[in-house]
Specification:
Helices cover 58% and strands 9% of the residues. It has 21 helices and eight strands. Helix 13 runs parallel beside helix 15. It binds adenosine-5'-diphosphate and magnesium ion.
């Protein structure tokens, strides 16, 4: 038995069987890469990595020391990180076929609350009176709030009535256009889009600054509208706010009805989570549903991601989904969200809080309060972003990475010695993570 296995066996006696089975059992020790002062373990997924890092790595290091007499650094990492990354990437790139509607995007599966009732009512009404009430119907709102779902819900109704429905994104419309231009088959392109009964175009904001396709789209629009065919469009903002759009298109987008979708309020979020659980046969206690609804702001797509992650992990590890388990999975997710956090945001929040200008933080200014603010910004950037020390040095106008590590050490010492300072850093960190 290798020393890594021995240590894990010893750990078994110190923790509960459930904990062992859930987390420790999945670890493998790298006999080749580990050395007398470095122990490398692989875990099957990020959840286990995090959990073990937080809860057991000190214990594991201690057990190593007892067994080998050496001080050992314990490193827990993902198995085949690159492969896993690739896998998720491929998955993300596969897009559903454009013309196929998702049958689960139905009105029945759409939970209605104050935030989306206007858009819902508008789409519902259009689905019952194609081409007669609001044409075009323009739905706009933030990412993951249900625009595509609603639009396709109408599409499904029309399709079931035997109508010819085209669902496409601007991107696909554009690709199709280019292909037909290249093959000199533009008549077929025009016929296709002008002969349908209902045209659903998603994410219209991508028409912005693309003159050629705007022109083509304009003619398609006119032909369909003239023939009384229903058009439904979505975008991430109001037509007026989409820059780089021909005036004639912009005004036409407002001819029918423009309806917005707002982020769901708590009750709607709860209803959505319950619905998704019902559809995907996931069992969650009330307590967990409420927890997820509270910590995830608004993006429904993100909520779905969490549910499927929870489901996958619980199957993988043969455990029920309890609150502790959920919190751990969410910790991961919330961390991922922070990857979008920029140093600009951090600098702005810190500057504002300490009453100086963001540009001063990035300047070479040596006055006491500027240096203080800069150090804090550097420290928080290191904690919350993935940037390397050289990148931080460049951004904050410091000489090199040693200046950064020096700064971080200073702040760490301060945090250790001064409770008030620690509180200050925590407060700022909270402000920053809620600002992003
Ligand atoms: P958008 O097009 O606005 O970015 P989507 O329509 O793709 O968002 O919605 C993202 C996910 O969230 C979809 O799986 C959708 O089913 C779900 N969703 C959003 N809003 C609701 C809702 N009110 N009820 C049920 N599911 C919803
Ligand atoms: Mg969409």
């Amino acid at each position: 038995m290798n020393i890594g296995k021995e240590v894990l066996e010893a750990l078994k006696d110190e923790i509960t069987e459930i904990e062992y089975k859930r987390y420790i059992q999945h670890l493998t020790y790298d006999t080749k890469k580990s050395t007398s002062d470095l122990a490398i373990f692989y875990a099957p997924n990020a959840l286990v990595v995090n959990w073990i890092k937080n809860k057991y790595s000190a214990k594991i290091a201690h057990l190593f020391e007892i067994k080998s007499g050496n001080k050992v650094t314990v490193r827990i990492t993902l198995k085949n990180t690159t492969q896993e990354k690739q896998k998720t990437k491929i998955k993300a790139e596969v897009k559903p076929n454009s013309s196929l509607l998702n049958p689960s995007y139905s009105f029945d599966n759409f939970m209605v609350g104050g935030s989306n009732q206007f858009a819902y009512a508008a789409v519902k009404s259009v689905s019952e009176n194609a081409g007669k009430v609001y044409n075009p119907l323009f739905i706009y709102g933030g990412v993951g709030l249900g625009k595509t779902h609603l639009m396709q819900a109408a599409g499904n109704v029309f399709q079931n009535e035997g109508k010819v429905v085209i669902y496409t994104t601007v991107e696909q419309f554009l690709n199709d256009f280019i292909r037909h231009v290249r093959n000199k088959t533009m008549e077929r392109f025009q016929e296709k889009y002008r002969k349908c009964d209902v045209l659903l175009i998603d994410d219209i904001q991508f028409l912005s600054n693309k003159e050629g396709i705007q022109e083509e789209f304009f003619h398609t629009f006119e032909a369909l509208k003239g023939a009384g065919k229903q058009i439904i469009l979505t975008a991430d903002k109001h037509p007026k706010k989409i820059g780089g759009l021909e005036a004639r298109l912009q005004s036409r987008f407002e001819w029918g009805l423009v309806a917005d979708i707002q982020p769901p309020e708590l009750e709607t979020k709860i209803a959505i989570i319950k619905k998704k659980c019902e559809i995907n046969k996931i069992k969650l206690d009330e307590e967990i549903v409420n927890y997820i609804a509270t910590v995830i702001d608004s993006n429904v797509r993100e909520i779905e991601g969490i549910l499927s992650k929870l489901h996958a992990y619980s199957q993988l590890m043969h455990v029920d989904i309890d609150l502790e388990f959920t919190k751990n999975v969410l910790k991961d997710q919330l961390k991922e969200n922070r990857q979008n956090l920029t140093m600009d945001t951090i600098t702005e929040v810190v500057a504002k809080d300490l009453n100086i200008k963001p540009s001063e933080i990035k300047s070479k200014g040596r006055s006491k309060n500027i240096v203080y603010a800069r150090r804090i910004a550097i420290y928080i950037s290191r904690e919350l972003t993935q940037h390397t020390m050289p990148q931080l040095a460049q951004y904050f106008g410091m000489k090199d990475h040693t200046a950064i590590s020096h700064t971080i050490k200073k702040i760490n010492d301060l945090i250790k010695d001064d409770e008030d300072f620690k509180t200050k850093i925590d407060e700022l960190t909270n402000k920053i993570t809620s600002a992003s």
